[in-house]
Amino acid sequence: MECERPGGEHARDSLEIGLELVAHGNPPEPPGWTVILALNVQCWCPLEHPDHGYHRVRTAEWTTAAPAATLAALDEALTHTAQWLRTFPDPDGWRHRHGLPPRTGRP
Ligand SMILES: [Zn+2]
């Protein structure tokens, strides 16, 4: 979906997936990892409010202590992503669920 963003900027509306892998621990201790998954929608807040860029509408997090468990957590994160996108593929559906302003075609 293409729409007009305030200021004349064309913007394509879409869901954005954020996947972050954070290593923690102090050498020589074996590291642990945290897998952080986020589902974001673009900000369409009214002009009088700041443009937040995006809003995070779902998150999930797994903390692991071994590489095999980290790979399993990444696999689970991808499964979550597929479920989220299958449940509500429309960004406006997520905005509505979270009380965020819908995307508009403001000139
Ligand atoms: Zn916003």
What does this structure look like?
The protein has helices at residues 67-87, 91-97, and strands spanning 2-5, 9-12, 15-24, 32-42, 54-64. By secondary structure, it is α+β, with helices and mostly antiparallel strands. The protein has one domain. A three-stranded antiparallel sheet has the order 3-4-5. Strands 1-2 form a two-stranded antiparallel sheet. The chain starts with a strand and ends in a 10-residue tail after the last helix. Residues 43, 45, 52, 55 line the site of zinc ion. Zinc ion (ZN) binds next to loops.
- The structural domain count equals 1
Q: How would you spell out the order of helices and strands?
A: EEEEEHH
**Poorly predicted ranges (pLDDT <50, ≥5 residues)?**
1-9
Largest sheet at a glance?
Answer: 3 strands, antiparallel
How many beta strands in the DSSP annotation?
Answer: 5
Average of pLDDT: 86
Overall body shape: elongated
Q: List all distinct small molecules, including ions and cofactors, that are bound in this structure.
A: zinc ion
Structural class: alpha+beta
Rg from alpha-carbon coordinates: 17 Å
Strand order of the largest sheet: 3-4-5
Amino- and carboxy-terminal Cα gap: 16 Å
Helix content: 25-40%
How much of the polypeptide forms β-strand, as a percent range?
Answer: 35-45%
SS element count, helices: 2
Give the tags.
two-stranded antiparallel ribbon; 2 helices; alpha+beta; binds zinc ion; 107 residues; single chain
Layout of strands and helices, then pairs:
Blueprint: E1 2-5, E2 9-12, E3 15-24, E4 32-42, E5 54-64, H1 67-87, H2 91-97
Antiparallel strand pairs: 1-2, 3-4, 4-5
